[in-house]
Amino acid sequence: MNHVFELEGVDYQLWLSRCQQGYRLHLGGEILVPLDFTHQGDGSGILTIADSNEPVRFAIDGDTIHLHIRGRTRVLRYRDPLLAHSLVKKDAGLLVARAPMPGVVVKTSVLPGDQISAGSALMVIESMKLESVIRAPQDGVVDRIHFSEGQSFKHGAVLVTIKEEGH
């Protein structure tokens, strides 16, 4: 499972893979430690990191997680991993949706000139037999679709260019 969290203005991309003890935490291509979490109900639980058990308290508000561990409270913001990787400001008034992985366009949901709302589907892509929806990060107008249905693309390729409203 691929996840992106923002902590104190810095994005951290992590990957969790199953193992006998629960999960292994991968950060920056490096396996850090096995970990597991036992939820105890009332906004608390036990986080097992390697062989150490840490009591935690947490509150979740949408994509924001308030986590109290080891005497400190931290605020984490969950970011959609596809959006975190694929949407980049190109220059004033333009956004580009980049391919988060190599693949093929399965379906294009918009045309150049279409008004779009934040969260609306731009296209469906497939990579390693997994379909993912590329969504608009904000309201705007589709400027250009860079790949047609059935065309393949490489990791990082620009899929869609969007003009911000008013530009």
From TrEMBL:
One of its GO terms (molecular function) is methylcrotonoyl-CoA carboxylase activity. Its EC number is 6.4.1.4. It is an enzyme of class 6 (ligase). It comes from the Bacteria. Keywords: Biotin, Ligase. Coiled coil: none annotated. Residues 89-163 form the Lipoyl-binding domain. The keyword Ligase applies. This is 3-methylcrotonyl-CoA carboxylase alpha subunit. It comes from Rhizobium binae.
